[in-house]
TrEMBL record:
Protein name: Potassium channel domain-containing protein
A cellular component annotation (GO) from this entry: plasma membrane
Pfam family name, one: Ion_trans_2
Every Potassium channel domain range: 114-172, 301-380
Organism of this sequence: Euphydryas editha (Edith's checkerspot)
Keyword Transmembrane attributed: yes
Localisation per UniProt entry: Membrane
Length: 399
């Protein structure tokens, strides 16, 4: 029995560890954010929706009671020919009713008889704006429990969303680097031969001491065991001199000649690599994650995503292109003024396709902005390192 309990306990621990590892992976974080937002939508709809219907029913009852009071106690009791007393009584009752309306509006009543602000769509959008810190302000909790739950929901949701931005931003950045490397750093692009020579020079560059060669008939009076291991040079590859000759021939300017350049065995021209013997050195292998994406490309991606959102929201919400772009920028930058909000479709009881696309646009857009910031940061660091190297060389030249 103890062994079985231990095995069962170890299995449970392994399952829990695997589940936690999945939750904090890239896919798990996305699933966790979506599930957390959906759970918040159901929770706020249950809390605020019931209170909203209660406010609507109370105001309908107050309106009916006021109308009945004016008919029974004013119209039938007072003398209709006494205009002064009639107006005073009616104005006092209407002022009392107006105070009730003001109090109800402060508690969240919008003046409609059957309007339902806290539908699933609006509750989902509210939950999403809470954890993304957008906060449009068009919808807010009115009950005490709603305010308390919003505080704890934001305390747990905001770190979760920051984790989502970090993980998904890095994942998108790595994917985009690979796409950029395949699309813009191919061998047909300008500068391929130069990048190839630079990389090979870094791999096979040697010092002056290593370039001294022994004559073929030279014999040393010392054996290899007498040589200190610290000063023993590493073995060179068989085609070392061919590679070095190729680097010198490519890096040094060649005079114009109508005759074709003779090929060095084992090497081919940078673009042509038809021979199977030269396939080993006819391309450059590079790490895609070590490539930096230009800042202009990142800015173009963000501007294109804003224009795409302005077109979509312009069609659905009947906004012009400027208002759509303004809404997308305010939302993705988490400013959230609230002057433009996805309109009347949010408050319908059924789930609209435009609402789902709007939510996905915000989730993907903020991750895309995080990706662009990550790529631009790497590019700035790359420029800074290059500036440091240039300054060091200038200082050495002055000395």
């Amino acid at each position: 029995m103890p062994r079985r309990k231990r095995r069962f306990g170890s299995r449970i621990r392994n399952y829990v560890r695997g589940f936690l590892a999945f939750l904090f992976s890239n896919v798990g974080v996305v699933v966790l954010v979506v599930a957390y937002t959906i759970a918040g939508a159901f929770m706020f709809q249950a809390i605020e929706g019931a209170s909203e219907m209660e406010r609507v029913n109370n105001m309908s009852r107050e309106r009916d009671n006021t109308a009945e009071y004016l008919w029974q106690n004013v119209t039938l009791t007072l003398n209709l020919f006494n205009e002064t007393a009639l107006k005073e009584s009616i104005s006092m009752e209407l002022q009392h009713y107006q105070r009730k309306i003001v109090i109800a509006v402060r508690r969240g009543w919008d003046g409609g008889r059957s309007s339902k602000q806290w539908s699933f769509s609006s509750a989902f959008l509210y939950s999403l704006t809470v954890i993304t810190t957008i906060g449009y302000g068009h919808l807010s909790p009115r009950t005490n429990w709603g305010k308390i739950i919003t505080i704890f929901y934001a305390l747990l949701g905001m770190p979760l969303f920051l984790l989502y931005l970090s993980n998904v931003g890095e994942l998108l950045a790595s994917w985009f680097k690979c796409i950029y490397a395949l699309a813009c750093l191919c061998r047909g692009c300008p500068g391929f031969s130069r990048r190839r020579v630079v990389q090979l020079r870094q791999q096979f560059e040697i010092s002056d001491a290593e370039s001294i060669e022994r004559p073929p008939g030279w014999r040393s009076g010392y054996t290899d065991s007498d040589v200190t291991p610290e000063y023993r040079l590493p073995p060179r590859p068989p085609d070392y001199f061919q590679r070095r000759a190729y680097l010198r021939s490519v890096s040094m300017p060649q005079p114009y000649s109508p005759r074709p350049r003779p090929e060095v065995r084992g090497w081919s021209e940078p673009i042509h690599h038809d021979s199977p013997d030269t396939s080993e050195f006819s391309y450059v292998t590079f790490d895609a994650q070590a490539i930096t994406v230009p800042i202009s490309v990142c800015v173009a991606i963000m501007v294109g995503y804003l224009m795409f959102g302005s077109v979509i929201f312009g069609l659905w919400e009947k906004w012009d292109k400027l208002d759509g772009a303004y809404f997308c920028f305010i939302s993705l930058s988490s400013i959230g003024f609230g002057d433009f909000v996805p309109g009347e479709r949010v408050y319908t009881p059924r789930i609209e396709t435009s609402f789902i696309v709007c939510s996905l646009y915000l989730l993907l857009g903020m991750a895309l902005v995080a990706m662009c910031f990550n790529l631009m940061q790497e590019q700035v660091i790359h420029y800074y390192d290059g500036l440091k190297r240039a300054l060091k060389r200038i200082c050495r030249c002055k000395r």
